[in-house]
Write a structure and sequence with these properties.
The protein has 663 residues and is mainly β. The protein has 3 helices and 46 strands. The structure holds beta-L-arabinofuranose. Beta-L-arabinofuranose (FUB) binds next to strand 1.
Length: 663
């Protein structure tokens, strides 16, 4: 009964390792299983209650109408395979019961058996049904009737090393399954129990008899190193903890051993879990009401690592926001779900009207920090870092390796009020800020984000590999590209020229700044690679480069030499060799923003105003490229934009001139 999702929904959800692990819907009661080398997650699917409430639905209660299955091979990126069963598909269930509670799924005899509770159509209470598939993702076909003899919720099937499959449910009841996996064994004991003055018959063995078991539910049983573990939520004080008991036999008697996880700190009443070993590490899946802090019936799956002591007992687990998994530095790191943080760090929803948008972490003081562990840098080459941040004052933060005082990877100034730059105040706005990497860590390491001023909120960071915009020029002469664009240039590092807006780029302003004496001195007819040039208090270097693109990305050029990228002027030169005079050609240029062009020291084109780079945006008067060497030079100015330009010559038929060589 698989419902097919549009193809784009089958794509990985693109989530980084963090808790909760799914942020597109609620995912309660997470049962994880390993099939075919992958982890499959079978949660129940909390939804908001319909309005008005259907008849008989308890207000402020659980509400689930279907199941999705998710998979992952790294525990950090999850694929939603869509709906595998809905309440309308269950032949014996109430189609409007909204009670598709905690499920399980196991593989046996070439089939996948999906066990799920639902309220029965006839009679009272919950039954447990089975749906069968050939693949973990489905399609699943529900068996016509629920398992006879079982009234209750929260099925879990243990496939023991004795060759049998055992089903656990409710408050720790257990029965052996027949080989068909859809019936309990004929010799299952039946116990008579009294609730008030009514007597009921309950099948199976009560494995939690005489153990701490107040309001116990959600049993999860597994076997490890010759021990059987029965792990289960129960109420120790007012809300659920997860405890466990051990035995040498699947059906007990079990001995209580202690807690795996204590009560949720914020009194989310339920917890529900599963335990797997994946690639040699044990993991504990559980839930919390992260996305609905005021409503503990809408929950979301989380993961932590689980460890055994040498005697087989389990170490208690403290919930974290970070969760598990080595995360690729090139994916979005939701650092608001950190591993640890200084005590003053607070987290808040980014948007309280849409909590699935996630959180921000605020670092209020000098010295505040957050740590985000296990980031894999093996795919980061020549990288830079972007960060999604908000500042309530000018602030400065650094991303470091291994400790809050560790080696600086990247250094950010959040509000652009810096020396030599035009003033602009972005306080209180979400911004994506970028910084070059001062240092690229190797392998898997921990990140620390620290601020020496406070006033910072951060949502996520993402490392990015720098696209290659330039390469070192090859020996010899270069030709224009197939469209005639000139790609070989001497580019001088930018001159700082504060301009908060490009609206000032009138003809007269441009003539004034481009002909200013010190700026003109930056132009030469014999440019040299790596030549140092003085401009006022700046020392600039000229670089001979071949552009990878038809448009020469001056913004990226400036960024790569750690120069200002906004509020700047560039001087660019190219040396053109012609075998003969080429008459009646015109320079066709595009630039972001304004620019001026000279051929052999004669001004041939002025492109004023606040421009975007467009091919052949403006053309010059007709000119002659003379036999021998021609020097084409340009000045480009920009305020807050990303500077670039493209230049080619066109002939009298508007065709690109390609019969030239660039020195
Ligand atoms: O999700 C509904 C119920 O809440 C589950 O079946 C219980 O285990 C508890 O998590």
């Amino acid at each position: 009964m698989k419902r097919f999702l549009p193809a784009f929904l089958l794509l990985p959800l693109g989530l980084a390792a963090q808790n909760p692990i799914i942020n597109t819907q609620f995912t309660a009661d997470p049962t994880a299983r390993v099939f075919n080398g992958k982890v499959y997650l079978f949660p129940s699917h909390d939804i908001m209650q319909p309005s008005p409430l259907p008849q008989g639905m308890r207000p402020n209660w659980f509400c689930m109408e279907d199941y999705h299955v998710f998979s992952s091979d790294n525990l950090t990126e999850w694929t939603d395979h869509g709906v595998i069963l809905t309440q309308k598909d269950v032949p014996w269930g109430n189609p409007n019961g909204y009670s598709m509670w905690a499920p399980d799924c196991v593989y046996r005899n070439g089939k996948y058996y999906f066990y799920y509770p639902d309220v029965v159509k006839e009679g009272m209470g919950f039954g447990i049904g089975v749906a069968i598939a050939d693949k973990p993702e489905g399609p699943y076909t529900p068996v016509k009737s629920n398992i006879k003899g079982i009234n209750g919720i929260d099925p879990c099937v243990l496939q023991a090393s004795d060759g049998n499959a055992y089903i656990f449910w409710g408050a720790g009841r257990c029965a052996k399954l027949k080989e068909n996996m859809v019936e309990i064994a004929d010799d299952t004991p039946v116990e008579k129990v009294k609730f008030g003055d009514r007597e009921f018959e309950l099948s199976g063995v009560n494995c939690l008899k005489d153990l701490p078991n107040r309001q116990a539910e959600g049993p999860f049983a597994f076997e490890h190193n010759g021990n059987y573990y029965l792990t289960y939520p129960y109420v120790r004080k007012n809300t659920e903890v997860i405890g466990y008991a051990m035995s040498k036999n699947p059906m007990g008697p079990y001995q209580y051993k202690g807690l795996i996880m204590a009560e949720h700190a914020d009194s989310c009443w339920t917890n529900h879990h599963s335990i797997i070993n994946y690639k040699g590490q044990w993991y504990f899946f559980y839930h919390h009401n992260d996305f609905s802090p005021n409503d503990d019936k809408r929950r979301s799956a989380r993961i932590e690592k689980l460890f055994f002591n040498p005697d087989g007992t389990i170490q208690e687990i403290k919930p974290t926001l970070r969760g598990v998994g080595i995360v690729n530095a090139l994916s979005k790191l939701e650092v608001d779900r950190y591993s640890t943080a200084s005590n003053d760090v607070k987290i808040n929803f980014i948007d309280t009207a849409d909590k699935f948008k996630g959180w921000e972490a605020s670092l209020p003081n000098k010295g505040s920090f957050i740590k985000f562990n296990d980031v894999d840098f093996s795919s980061v080459t020549d990288g830079y870092l972007t960060a999604n941040v908000k500042a309530d004052k000018n602030t400065h933060f650094t991303v470091r390796e291994k400790s809050a005082k560790g080696k600086v990877i990247a250094d950010f100034k959040v509000v652009f009020i810096t020396e030599g730059q035009f003033k602009r105040d972005y306080s209180g706005q979400w911004l994506t800020v970028t910084a070059p990497l001062d240092y690229t860590p190797k392998g898997v390491t921990d990140l620390y984000i620290t601020t020496d001023q406070g006033g910072l909120s951060i949502d996520n960071v993402q490392f990015k590999n720098r696209e290659k915009y330039f390469k070192q020029p090859s020996n010899g002469l270069a030709a224009p590209d197939e469209d005639g664009f000139i790609r070989r240039w001497f580019l001088l590092e930018p001159v700082n020229k504060e301009n908060p807006t490009n609206a000032v780029f009138t003809d007269s302003y441009l003539k004034q700044v481009f002909y200013e004496e010190d700026f003109r001195k930056l132009f030469t007819n014999s440019p040299v690679d790596n030549q140092k040039v003085k401009y006022k208090d700046q020392t600039l270097v000229r670089h001979k480069l071949d552009s990878e693109n038809f448009n020469v990305k001056l913004f990226r050029f400036a960024e790569s030499y750690k120069k200002h990228v906004y509020g700047v002027m560039f001087s660019v030169i190219t040396l053109i060799e012609c075998d003969q005079d080429i008459e009646n050609v015109r320079l066709a240029a595009g630039s972001n923003s304004a620019s001026m062009w000279w051929l052999n020291d004669e001004e041939i084109l002025l492109m004023s105003g606040d421009r975007r780079m467009v091919k052949d945006d403006c053309v010059s008067k007709r000119i002659t490229l003379k036999k021998g060497l021609n020097v084409l030079s340009g000045a480009i100015i920009n305020g807050p934009g990303m500077s670039d330009f493209c230049v080619r010559f066109i002939d009298s038929n508007n065709q690109p001139v390609k019969g030239i060589k660039i020195r």
